[in-house]
Amino acid sequence: MSSHISLPGGLSAYGWDDELDRAFAPHRAAGLVPARIAAVDRGRCDAVTEAGPLRAGTSLVKTADPVASPCTGDWAAVPPGAEPEIAALLPRRSVIVRSSPSRRSHGQALAANVDTVAVVSSLATASNPGRVERLLALAWESGALPVLVLTKADAVADPTRSADDAARLAPGVSVITTSAETGQGLDALAGVLTGTVVLLGPSGAGKSTLGNALLGAEVLATGAVRAQDGKGRHTTVRRELVPLPNGGVLIDTPGLRGIGLVDADDGLQQVFAEIEELARDCRFADCSHEREPGCAVQAAIASGELDQRRLASYRKLQRENEWATSRSDARAQREDVKKAITRSLRQTYAFRDRQRRS
Questions:
Q1: Domain parsing of the chain, residue ranges
Q2: In terms of DSSP bridges, do strands 88-89 and 75-78 run parallel, antiparallel, or are they unpaired?
Q3: Which end of the chain is less enclosed by CB atoms within 10 A, N or C?
Q4: For residues 136 and 133, what is the distance between their CA atoms, to the nearest angstrom?
């Protein structure tokens, strides 16, 4: 377990509250104690309890579905003692899920019980609006509140203009421009990051540097970025949970190369809220926003109110989300069929056994 994990204020420093305490009552009656998972690797996890940090096994709660398996941020019930096995996970309030990097039908849980998602994008590198939109959709879909954090403001000539451009990608989202080098925007950022906070973004965006600035210490590993493209190395190699000095909890994540969406309809509607709003005024309810007469979306593009790139990005992410969701649904159906077959076989074998004994 990382040496910086401590328990000032007990589990309340990690987000424990009255609602969780009530939900935990049956586990407490069974002699278990609450713990929050700080990091997961190779079938075991680092967790924190009122008594301090511990290392625990996850075999009892691991499932075939990676989304339901233990992840950083989960609240768990464990027996007291050294090297325990997690006995149960508490229901999640929120969870960040992306399509698995291998493009299989499974999703992948990145962090659970998150209150605020800080989508981190560097102003020092070429703009990638599609990636920002993906991450914001991921954040909205999780059930947490997204915040768009623009880092390395000291590296650009006109950070205000860059921030204005970024704000158009994030309707309804607070946009904070920061510089860990000069301290710009850090107080404003600390004011909007509440509860359990996750930093999401690509390698080189400055997540760990930003995290260290919020923590007030060099806790998270950082690394240099390549001068030619601004890309960084994966100095954060696993998700890790650390208490913030002024309250709340920070989860730093490895840089995300693949940001696939799955079952993220609500998140996409939030990110592209202006297109959803315009579409309500289209003549036809099933308008594809291509060549139909009376299309309010195409009219907005023609007038300059809406950027054609935004519509193209929306369509692309919708197609990707529909494909991944259909794959996930098909996998779930296959697993249901397998379970039904297994139940039928068990019933058949049981009947045969009863017949032989009679």
A1: 10-91, 96-252
A2: antiparallel
A3: C
A4: 5
Cα distances (angstroms) measured from residue 205 to each of 90, 124, 153, 182, 347: 33, 9, 12, 16, 56
Tell me which of 3.40.50.300, 3.30.230.10, 3.40.50.720, 3.30.390.30 is the CATH number of domain 96-252: 3.40.50.300
Identify whether the C-beta of residue 109 lies closer than 8 Å to the C-beta of residue 97: yes
For the record, the structure tokens of 90 come out as 């508490």
Give all strands (DSSP E) within the chain, no chain letters.
33-41, 44-49, 52-57, 75-78, 88-89, 95-99, 107-112, 116-122, 145-151, 174-177, 196-200, 240-243, 249-252
Rounded to 10°, the helix 308-357/296-303 angle is 150
Q: How far apart are CA 242 and CA 74, in angstroms?
A: 14
> Do 114 and 94 touch, CB atoms closer than 8 A?
yes
Pairing of strands 95-99, 107-112: antiparallel
What's the token pair of residue 117?
Answer: 């998602």
Domain 10-91, CATH:
2.40.50.140
Provide the Cα torsion 245, 71, 91, 265; round to 10°.
Answer: 100
Per-10-residue mean pLDDT of the chain, 358 residues long, equals: 47 93 95 94 90 92 88 95 90 90 69 96 89 95 96 90 90 94 93 93 87 84 48 50 88 72 93 96 94 95 96 94 74 44 50 58
Residue 81: what pLDDT? 79
- At residue 133, the 3 state secondary structure works out as helix
Q: What integer pLDDT is reported at residue 191 of this predicted model?
A: 92
Bridge partners, residue 98, by sequence: 108
Binding positions for Zn(2+): 282, 287, 289, 295
205, 148 Cβ separation under 8 angstroms: no
DSSP 154: G
Q: Which residues are annotated as a binding site?
A: 151-154, 201-209, 282, 287, 289, 295
Alpha helices in the chain (DSSP H): 18-23, 25-29, 129-142, 159-167, 186-192, 207-215, 265-271, 273-279, 296-303, 308-357
Pairing of the two strands 249-252 and 33-41: unpaired
The pLDDT value given to residue 3: 38
